[in-house]
Design goal:
Order of helices and strands: HHHHHHHHHHHH
Organism: Gossypium harknessii
InterPro entries: Cellulose_synth (IPR005150)
Keywords: Cell wall biogenesis/degradation, Glycosyltransferase, Membrane, Transferase, Transmembrane, Transmembrane helix
Number of strands: 0
GO molecular function, one term: cellulose synthase (UDP-forming) activity
Main location: membrane
Distance between the termini: 49 Å
Shape: globular
Helix content: 55-70%
Strand content: under 5%
Number of helices: 12
Length: 292
């Protein structure tokens, strides 16, 4: 759909904005994490395959369409690749530095800290504004923001990796269809607002690993701050990284709930938690060895 639209607009097709109050199309959306992950992996693969091909909007579109349209198509094409790289970086690099007492951001008292604060708040407020102005609620925004984090480190990563390996001749292109069969149990969990984690370990392990690494970094920072009684302004130096870890944990509370609190069939299996624990220890050890 993306490439078809891109090709048509490049050939001169003119679109009009139509958003009637009465829905013109009704369909069935995915209601569980497994189908969402498969769907977005497929979409990410499609976007990335265009981004690193001869049809890349950066070289194939500028002279044939408006500047705004060209930028929109470029953003979509590179979205999976850029999001997965940036989110993986934000999920581990500040936390590993926090775990090893290495400050990355300016002190809270420094005026340069406001730059990071403004960027962070503007990103959140922008997404909140888009959801609210299109009829959504704060709860809708919160879930959408959480899902964006999840798919950035799983679906976007796997979709982009699949294309890169295919271009290198190391893997054949794959296509996984989304299951459209309605499961009453899954629908019930969806309507109750309960996250269904019944999916492959490849989609769960990265999420749990990120959460465990952030818990380890945040708890260690708290202990150090309390034991040393904020010696040498530790709190002021490390506040940015501590807040980032705390924000990631709060935003992804459903993952923590699925690991520790819930014991139903749709929770995160203990085997996945243990495997992710091994990955987390390995990442912390490697990070400490590199940064020490």
């Amino acid at each position: 759909d993306y490439f078809t639209g891109f090709t048509l607009h490049r050939k001169g097709w003119k679109s009009v904005y139509l958003y009637p109050k009465k829905p013109q199309f009704l369909g069935t959306a995915t209601t569980n994490y497994n189908e969402v992950s498969i769907q977005w992996t497929r979409w990410a693969s499609g976007f990335t395959s265009v981004a690193i091909s001869k049809f890349c909007p950066l070289i194939y579109g500028p002279l044939k369409m408006s500047w705004v349209q060209f930028m929109c198509y470029s953003e979509l094409a590179f979205m999976p690749l850029l999001n997965c790289l940036s989110l993986w970086g934000f999920a581990f690099i500040p936390q590993l530095c926090l775990f090893n007492d290495i400050p990355l951001y300016p002190k809270v008292s420094d005026s340069s800290f406001n730059i990071f604060l403004i960027i962070f708040l503007s990103a959140i407020l922008k997404s909140l504004y888009e959801v609210v102005t299109t009829g959504g609620q704060v709860r809708t925004w919160r879930n959408d923001w959480r899902i964006w984090m999840m798919r950035s480190i799983t679906s976007y990563f796997y979709g982009s990796l699949d294309v890169v390996l295919n271009k290198l001749g190391m893997k054949e292109a794959s296509f996984l269809p989304t299951n459209k069969v309605i499961d009453d149990e899954q629908v019930k969990l969806y309507e109750m607002g309960i996250f269904d984690f019944r999916t492959a370990t490849t989609f769960l392990a990265p999420l749990v690993t990120v959460i465990l690494v952030n818990i380890a970094a945040f708890v260690r920072a708290l202990v150090v701050n309390v034991v040393d009684n904020d010696r040498d302004g530790y709190w002021e130096k490390m506040f940015g990284q501590m807040f980032l870890s705390f924000y990631i944990l709060v935003s992804n509370y459903t993952v923590i709930e699925g690991m520790i609190i819930r014991r139903d069939k749709a929770s995160i299996p203990l085997s996945v938690t243990l495997l992710s624990g091994v990955f987390s220890v390995f990442i912390l050890l490697i990070g400490s060895a590199i940064l020490s």
